[in-house]
Structures are given as structure tokens and as C-alpha cells.
Design goal:
The protein is about 70% helix and about 5% strand. By secondary structure, it is mainly alpha-helical. The protein has a domain of about 140 residues: Tetratricopeptide repeat domain (Serine Threonine Protein Phosphatase 5, Tetratricopeptide repeat). The longest helix has 15 residues. The two termini are about 40 Å apart.
Length: about 475
């Protein structure tokens, strides 16, 4: 688990009025939802803490480590500083030093949540999942008023296939929690359970209690969208006030949910700021099958500094409007190395196919793949060969270890009735890779469960995949095989 997997540690430093004796003045810190008295935090330490956080956000981990060390040079050592420094050191490849530092932090304060959250994060980062679970359990016990531990532990349990245990952790926390912490945990639970109504209510309660948490809601929407739940993402985004920076995320969610009418409404009210945004809007119109509007915007962009990307939009729009020969002429000019690649050869091949030149379409993709290999080209070439009845050639086009290629290879083998080979391919698939459709990841998890001898879990996972894609005949056939005992 990276530091970003769990919520930012809940730390607020309420500095007392500066007294004459720094080092004796007491302040109150809120750590893990509990108020704790402590020694005065010197401006020196606080300044270096802020500098460290800024360096970390900028990706400068060596500078962040240096600043955290300087922050620790104040009048009293602090478990939070130790935890943050340890996490940075581990990400710099100094794992032993990081764990030793956390041991020192536990001696300083055995019940500090930040120490155990960070220990859990480091263990999970190195795939020591049993140790990570123990550390996060200790974090929950150390700070029962904080939601950070329960949310992190529930995420780990769900990752380990223990959805029921994950939900139980969040529900136990919700039974004792109030305010923003409870709303955040309720949001995590509703997202886990794919419950749009509960998620929307949790977002409303969270923003009412802590309006500054809008970024967290956006992050949750992006996560569930990557996980294959566009309708849930739309629910989350609908609870946020309209913000220009959300438009691209909202558009993507609408398109993936096939809410084309809503997407057109968003696009029609979008006033693009610059050529890149103009082309983004044009590409949105292409996706919702409004090629004429895309063509208009593409030509405006081409008259400016739109370059190859604008010509790609124009070519795709011409093809979408039925002007295949004109589209092919535009698209043929776009070569590898530009922002139009690999979209240009794919669009050209489709235009040629629509003109009845199927062999030329396949040759276009093969030539493009030989000039600049790309997963999208391989997938499109395989699709065209399959449509032409060239199954062996379609399969050979999917050679490679990219997750999307593995997923396509598994599904094609499945469709060809080669069940054992398909199962082997599914087992090769990284089940948490967001580039792979959710239904395919669920099928891969089902095959893993079968390999481990858990037939009931495999059936449950395939049924879950059918909830998302009831028309998936491959999953239907596999479910029949498993439930009939064959």
C-alpha cells in the first residue's frame, strides 16, 4: 500500500500563543481523532515539516527525507515525523532503515496510529500482507476514533478477497463514529458495496461536515471509474459543486456509462480554453457519435495549432459521417511519432474496411505495427482478423505481456472453445490492473479461486461479473460448467 492508499494522516497542529520559553509551552494535537497534550512545536520544526510535505508532493523524495530529518531536530521527537520519514525512506529503497526507524517510533509512543499505518503501508508495498494486516489492526486499536485505520484495513482485506471482513471492519467503526470520519468510512463502505444511493448520501454528509474534502470525493470517483463503475462515479461527482477541473472526469464517466445525452449537454456548454481543450471536446463529440460537430471543431483547431491531433479528429469525423475515401486521404498522412499515433492507422484501417477494402485495412494495421508497436494496434488487428474468420491469425496478433493483450487473448481462447488455454491466460492476468475491463478481472479472479480449490468463490465471482454484463455469453457458459459440476 502506498501512502496514497489510505487517507492522509489526521494531524492538526494548534500552536499556542508563543510564550517566552519554547519547549515548555503545551499545545494540543489531534492525532487519530484523539486530543493529546504535547510540547510546543517550534516554528523551525513546523517550517521543515511543511517543506518536507511540499517536496514529497513534488516527487522529490531525497529532499523530503532531508527536510523531515531537520524537522525532527526540534525540542521533542514526534511519532508522526518518524512515520513520514520512514515512508519516504522505504520509497527510496531503504526499507531496513525505515523499519528500524518505525521501531524507534513505537518505543517513543507504542499506541501512535501514524506508526502503525506506515508500518502497514510498507509491509503491503513489499507484499507482506499478513504483516500489513497485523499492523493495520494495531492502528485501528491505537486510534478507535480515527477512520484512517479502518479504511486502510478494509481496503487491504478486500484486496485479499475478504469482502465480508472488510465491510465488518467499516461497520464496526461506523457504530461508534460521528462527523466527517464516519462519513468517510461510510463512503468507503458504499463504494466497496457498489451502492450508489448510499455513496451519494455519504458524500453529502462528508461535504457538509468537511467541505474541504471535495478532492477526496473526486479521488474516490476516479477510483471507482477506473474500477469499472461509471454510474457510481457519476453519483459521486453529482454531489460535488460544478468545477471546471471536473469536466473531463465527468465526461469520461458519462461516456463509460453510455449517458450520451448527458455528455452532449456537458459538451454543448463547454467553452474550451485553448486548442488542447477544444480537441478534447471534439473527441468527446466523436465518442457520442456526433461526427459533424466534431468535424467543425477539428477544422477550427487545425486552423490554429492543432497539428496531427486535429487532423486525426478531422479524419475520424469524416469517416463517422460516411466520407470514407476523404477520411482515408487525411489519415494516410499521419505517421508514427506524432500525437495522432496509433489512432491514425486504426481510423484509416476502419475507413478502408468501410469502403470494402478489408485486406488493405488489415495490411494498414500490420504495417503500422511493424513501424511502431502498440497495444491498440494489436487489439484492432486481432479484431479485424477475427471478423474475417482468421482465428489463428487473430490470436497471433495478441502476442505480448501487456495486461490488455493477455485479457484479449484469454477471451479469444474462451470464445474458440479452448477452455484450458483460456484458463491459463486468465491466471496470467494482473487482477488489479485498471486498464482491463472489470468483468474480465472478475473472471480472472474466478479462475484463481478455482486453482485454489474454492469452487464456491469462483461461482460467486462469475455471477458478480454477470451482474455487470448480463449478456456476456462466455461467463454464462463458464457458470453453467461450474454449477453443473463439469
Amino acid at each position: 500500500m502506498s501512502a496514497e492508499r489510505f487517507a492522509p494522516l489526521l494531524i492538526s497542529l494548534t500552536l499556542a500563543a508563543c510564550g517566552p520559553l519554547a519547549g515548555t509551552t503545551q499545545i494540543t494535537r489531534t492525532v487519530g481523532g484523539a486530543s493529546r497534550p504535547g510540547i510546543f512545536v517550534s516554528p523551525y520544526s513546523y517550517e521543515h515539516f511543511i517543506r518536507a510535505e511540499l517536496a514529497e508532493q513534488a516527487g522529490d523524495l531525497p529532499l523530503a527525507a532531508q527536510e523531515y530529518r531537520l524537522a525532527r531536530a526540534g525540542p521533542e521527537d514526534d511519532p508522526l515525523l518518524i512515520a513520514r520519514l520512514a515512508d519516504v525512506l522505504d520509497r527510496l529503497g531503504r526499507s531496513s532503515e525505515a523499519m528500524s526507524l518505525l521501531d524507534d517510533g513505537a518505543e517513543l509512543s507504542a499506541d501512535d496510529e501514524s506508526i502503525w499505518l506506515t508500518r502497514g503501508a510498507i509491509h503491503e508495498r513489499h507484499e507482506r500482507l499478513d504483516e500489513a494486516e497485523q499492523a493495520l489492526g494495531r492502528a485501528v486499536a491505537s486510534a478507535p476514533a480515527s477512520e484512517a485505520g479502518p479504511i486502510a484495513l478494509a481496503a487491504l482485506l478486500r484486496q485479499r478477497g475478504r469482502a465480508g471482513d472488510a465491510d465488518a471492519v467499516l461497520e464496526r467503526y461506523l457504530a461508534r463514529a460521528r462527523g466527517a470520519g464516519a462519513a468517510r468510512a461510510r463512503l468507503a463502505l458504499s463504494v466497496d458495496q457498489n451502492d450508489p444511493l448510499a455513496a451519494a448520501e455519504a458524500v453529502r454528509a462528508l461535504l457538509e461536515a468537511a467541505p474541504a474534502r471535495s478532492d477526496e470525493v473526486r479521488a474516490a470517483a476516479r477510483t471507482v471509474l477506473d474500477g469499472g463503475h461509471p454510474e457510481l462515479a457519476l453519483r459521486l461527482l453529482a454531489a460535488l459543486p460544478d468545477h471546471r477541473g471536473d469536466r473531463e472526469l465527468r465526461l469520461r464517466a458519462m461516456i463509460e456509462a453510455r449517458a450520451f445525452e448527458a455528455a452532449e449537454g456537458l459538451l454543448s456548454g463547454w467553452m474550451p480554453d485553448g486548442t488542447d481543450e477544444l480537441l478534447l471536446v471534439a473527441e468527446g463529440y466523436l465518442t457520442i457519435e456526433r461526427p459533424q460537430r466534431a468535424l467543425e471543431l477539428g477544422r477550427v483547431a487545425a486552423a490554429g495549432d492543432g497539428g496531427p491531433r486535429a487532423r486525426l479528429v478531422i479524419g475520424r469525423a469524416l469517416a463517422g459521417a460516411g466520407h470514407s475515401a476523404e477520411a482515408a486521404a487525411v489519415l494516410a498522412e499521419l505517421g508514427p511519432g506524432s500525437r495522432a499515433w496509433p489512432g491514425a492507422p486504426i481510423a484509416l484501417a476502419r475507413a478502408l474496411r468501410d469502403m470494402g477494402r478489408v485486406a488493405a485495412a488489415a495490411e494498414t494495421l500490420s504495417s503500422a505495427q511493424s513501424r511502431s508497436s502498440h497495444v491498440e494496434l494489436q487489439l484492432e488487428l486481432s479484431h479485424m482478423r477475427r471478423a474475417a474468420g482468421l482465428d489463428a491469425s487473430a490470436l497471433s496478433a495478441l502476442d505480448g505481456d501487456a495486461p490488455r493483450l493477455i485479457a484479449a487473448r484469454a477471451r479469444l481462447l474462451d470464445a474458440l472453445g479452448r477452455r484450458d488455454a483460456a484458463a491459463t491466460a486468465y491466471l496470467e492476468l494482473p487482477v488489479d490492473d485498471a486498464s482491463v475491463p472489470l468483468v474480465v478481472r472478475l473472471r480472472a479472479r474466478a479462475e484463481q479461486a478455482l486453482r485454489e480449490g474454492d469452487r464456491a468463490r469462483a461461482i460467486e465471482l462469475i455471477r458478480e461479473s454477470l451482474d455487470y454484463a448480463p449478456e456476456n455469453r462466455l461467463a454464462q457458459a463458464r457458470l453453467v460448467e461450474l454449477t453443473s459440476g463439469s
